[in-house]
Amino acid sequence: MMTNISEVISIAFFAGVLSIAIVGIIAFIYNIKLLHYLKKNKKKRWDQLTTIGVFGPGMSNSFRWFPYLYNNIDNENHTIQFYKKRIRFFLSLAIILLCILLISFIFLAKIVKRS
Q: What pLDDT shows up at residue 1?
């Protein structure tokens, strides 16, 4: 039985979005684990990374967090290094999957347009 092209596209879209969501959730879990580890073992670093202006520690400060993930600060600690590597890997994987999803839909759109 031949399937309709719209069914194939919807299944591909669902699979792509689901895989990106799963990878994103895994990165988020490692992110939370690293923040808890920093709060417990390196309180000053946690304060620095989670403070925004006059708002005290505990906030989400992406402007400090992402550079921290990609530099060598605290890499002498193997636990921190492990979490940072995992977070970087899963964030990169999510970006790659998103690009693959977008490119595949561009090609699918061209195929549908021809037929």
A: 45
